[in-house]
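seq/struct pair 1
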Amino acid sequence: MMFAISHPAIPPEAQIGLSLRVLCGFGIDEIAEAFLTNKEVINKRLFRAKEKIRVAGVSLDLPGPADIETRLSSVLTTIYLLFNEGYYSASDNRSLRKDLCFEAIRLGQMLIENEPTNGPEANALLALMCFHASRLDARLDANGELVLYEEQDTRLWNSDLVSKGGYFLNCAASGARLSKYHLEAGIAYWNTQKEDTEQKWQNILQLYNLLLQVDYSPMAALNRIYALSKIKGKPEAIREAERLDLRKNRFYYTLLGDLYSEVDNEKARQHLTEALALARTPAERTALQKKIDELP
């Protein structure tokens, strides 16, 4: 049905929004979060898409083989956002929803099991999801609180999913186009490497640099800053982060709070307090309050 909704008569962002709303059961807030925008924009986008379907008499039928490829990009993005909502969930007051993650993986596997959709980008997306899913069991502690990457128990990382991710990433190596899924899968691969080496962070930083050229997004730019801090140190990372000026973004303030820790603890406290005010789940609020309490 995702291919049916991804009709060329509807703008791509509306195709994805409708799929998330109708097929994946996302609320308007969740769709707005996925697109880094607000509810008003999403409501207007969905209304116009529905009006287009009604007025133009668009028939949302399953496309023929010739139309599959042109619609694949929207379907991949929908699956990608479905996985992200599970991995960084703010719905149902939960910070992690494994059911959404593994449903996205199931849909990705369906794509590669079907010859017309078994292309490099589909394999790269599946690799990305497998690498991320390999760390799901380590992201929450026994009390349901978020566990930061550096504090995760690597014994809980799923080596089978890491191996599957490597297999699908290898399958994605054919073709001439380097997609964002290839680059994000590469970053996710290095994050499954347990040793905290300079080589690891150099590779992650280089992949983020390429990703921002291929498909710029504020969140990718923000995530790059963490890798930069590992290579260049906190002061340079702080300067880069503040240039982004992503106000109203809780992850922005969380990162700045971490970077200012032990550099300027009062500023760290201010930023973490801003993040706490924007937090969307109890687990997030607990983790942020813990950070604040641990500051000197």
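seq/struct pair 2
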Amino acid sequence: MAFLEVLATGPLTLVEDAGRPGHLAVGVGRAGAADQSSYRLGERLLGNRPGRAALEVTLGGLRVRAHGPVMLCLTGAPAPATIDGAPAPHASPFTLGDAQELSLGMPPTGLRTYLSVRGGLAVRPVLGSCSTDTMAGLGPPPVRPGDRLPVGDAVVAFPTVDVAPVPCPGADTVVLAVLPGPRRGWFARPEALGETVWVVSELSDRKGIRLEGKAIERHTDYVDVELSSEGMVRGAIQVPPGGQPVLLLNDHPVTGGYPVIGVVRSADVDRAAQLRPGQPVRLIWQAP
């Protein structure tokens, strides 16, 4: 069986797939690739069966060596890639020959690059998924130098598309559509969420994106009121007492006690997953 030998990982490299839905009632979140659309694109370009495991690489730095020829595809943040020093394509399948090395640099825009493998990574699943959940500690541990990742054979067809002409994540202000949340009435002026240009905090991670800007004030009826914990979803925007919003991502806690002012549309959460610390964000209210 062919496998990828990990030589370097960069800041953070995780094994992720489509996630493990259906376990919220027992306190287990979905996890999975933070940018689901980029992940799914790589899987389709390789002709994989749905839900195969891939690598989620944060800010580049990954280096792997092939043991046996493997077909790969890079999607998401456009990390500059080389095969034994020669350029490798983005959003286009390519072959990494036996003993060849693939290296990823830091992407000029975006945060997360996905390295998909034809056949998927044959990693042992937990509760039906190979995803790493950084909140619950489920799934495989973060990828480390020296790891050997076996390649599976879960394919449905041979790829027929040479390249996918998809836009790369931008570096400018990103606009995200927000639907009204269940606790919108807890705030004096919920419209303030859309009037502020927020900045992504360095404290953001796969659990949530912390935003910095003008604090959102609570309605006077709720200034000293505590909210019982209630279910949370990917894309929910919680507002802690300090007034700085937190946009929940894939590894979010399944319950939370901060009021949810709004919920970002699913497709826009994928775009949010590519936001880098310091990048400006606008949250625009949409009708439900």
